[in-house]
Amino acid sequence: MWLEIKKLIVVIIGAFLTALGMNWFLIPANVYSSGFTGIAQILTKLLNDYTPINISIGFLLLVLNIPVAILGWKKVGKSFTVYSFISVVLSSLFLELIPVEKMSDDILLNAVFGGVIMAVGIGFTLKWGASTGGLDIIAMVLSRIKDKPIGPYMFALNSIIILMAGYLNGWEKALYTLVFLYASTRVIDTIHTRHAKLTAFIITKKADEMKKAIHAKLVRGITMIPGKGAFSNETRDIMMIVITRYELFDLERVIKEVDPNAFTNIVQTNAVYGFFRKD
Question: Which residue, of 41, 113, 120, 233, has the greatest Cβ tally within 10 A?
Answer without folding.
Answer: 41
